[in-house]
Amino acid sequence: xxxxxxxxxxxxxxxxxxxxxxxxxxxxxxxxxxxxxxxxxxxxxxxxxxxxxxxxxxxxxxxxxxxxxxxxxxxxxxxxxxxxxxxxxxxxxxxxxxxxxxxxxxxxxxxxxxxxxxxxxxxxxxxxxxxxxxxxxxxxxxxxxxxxxxxxxxxxxxxxxxxxxxxxxxxxxxxxxxxxxxxxxxxxxxxxxxxxxxxxxxxxxxxxxxxxxxxxxxxxxxxxxxxxxxxxxxxxxxxxxxxxxxxxxxxxxxxxxxxxxxxxxxxxxxxxxxxxxxxxxxxxxxxxxxxxxxxxxxxxxxxxxxxxxxxxxxxxxxxxxxxxxxxxxxxxxxxxxxxxxxxxxxxxxxxxxxxxxxxxxxxxxxxxxxxxxxxxxxxxxxxxxxxxxxxxxxxxxxxxxxxxxxxxxxxxxxxxxxxxxxxxxxxxxxxxxxxxxxxxxxxxxxxxxxxxxxxxxxxxxxxxxxxxxxxxxxx
Amino acid sequence: xxxxxxxxxxxxxxxxxxxxxxxxxxxxxxxxxxxxxxxxxxxxxxxxxxxxxxxxxxxxxxxxxxxxxxxxxxxxxxxxxxxxxxxxxxxxxxxxxxxxxxxxxxxxxxxxxxxxxxxxxxxxxxxxxxxxx
Lengths: 475, 133
Known about the structure:
Distance between the termini of chain A: 25 Å
Strand content of chain B: 5-15%
Number of domains of chain B: 2
Largest sheet of chain B: 2 strands, antiparallel
Largest interface: A-B, 75 and 63 residues
Helix content of chain B: 40-55%
Order of helices and strands of chain B: HHEEHHHEE
Oligomer: heterodimer
CATH architecture of the largest domain in chain B: Orthogonal Bundle
Number of strands of chain A: 0
Largest sheet of chain A: none
Shape of chain B: elongated
Number of strands of chain B: 4
Shape of chain A: globular
Strand order of the largest sheet of chain B: 1-2
Order of helices and strands of chain A: HHHHHHHHHHHHHHHHHH
CATH topology of the largest domain in chain B: Cytochrome Bc1 Complex, Chain D, domain 2
């Protein structure tokens, strides 16, 4: 663990802190949505499901996006040994994102939508996000210098940033009637952009996790190796061309589906590589398990395996016919966003936020319990979704199909299980995240109160928050 | 270790292929024509304005709380749809939609219905693992 010091959080760390807050709030909305599955009509007059779902989805999507930006910006500085080129751009990027996310969440409460699944907010709010991302790209390129002899994670960061921008803009082509008016064409492009967009933020996260592994191992052998680049190009190839598995059942061009099916099967190479290096991974896990960050990377490794097996199966159209539109798809998404993305981000958060003025030692037990609770809960959560999905798949294919509500009633035991495991998962995550946020909060105000006491009488929470914002602007 | 020149070559080929593929999709609409009307295009915006996709699916894509609505128009009819839209259900709120919005949403559901079938029982599975609609 890094020595304790009195450093105040810099802007990239503020990205990580904001991301952690979004993770916790997003999970609270997830549990609320779970309650609405079990109790139809729960909170309906004030906060019906069409509001709760985007509150949950946008919070966790921005947890991933803000967390990934914080990771890339911090690790880029550690990689180059230099500060980010423009602090002004960095602050502008941070405030653009934080303010926009707040406005988005408030607009959902007010029932103002206008966008589409996953980006349900009014399309005008996509503009500050796109501008913020362009600032990110400019700062990244200026800080990096060049691509000569760079390790694989730098290539992953760069392609992740560029492709996120491309796919984000592509996902807004619907604002033009030429794309919007034709249902099948519109949905084809929507899922083309979404499929590749997920691949883009995975590039940012996987690149950061490779950097972190190098840091833990204290060498860069892997990130310059041939196999690292071969896997990177395989991932990029899939990012570009395998998105069609989302729309096998859409009556779009058959060649889109055939290309996706063929490209998805190249993931078997990645799966084979994971199985091949399983023993080495286990040995390494035993050696490094005492490192908090490493524990999350080890958990993410297991979830990569489970999610990849499910993803490859679902990429076969003959299997996809059964799983599509069922909770098996949700299980896959949860495995990927919680088991892989969130665990990688938590590993990174512990690396980025451990240099506070207070020790994590008193929280060791709490953290350890939270870690196991989160992992076991996620497994139960994942299995309950697969169970619900299997029943729904059977209903979808049955010749004497009963009415939808009767089928939903049969799924209730699984919904109860995913609500309980979702709640314990939230508890586990809070137990993990609490020490991180608490230490940052205590140390920040300990330092800042000395600095601001002369100017701002910051005793009330409201004044403290104002002082924090002022500090972030001045930093 | 791969040389920088090899990496640039691979990535350039991938990007060029990706851009060609993307523009071929933008420029070539799917073969089947849908009956697009002014009312149905307005209906799509109403669908988005009330975030219907949070609970409902189209071609199996969307939420899981309500039923898939791809072919609800041909299975249940316009009158049935209008009753639901005007009153809500135990789970679905009554959005107090105007008559014009209800007509637009119904027209949009009619357009979706005409685009194809989302019933997986109607698909044929080929020996190579692909499906035919």
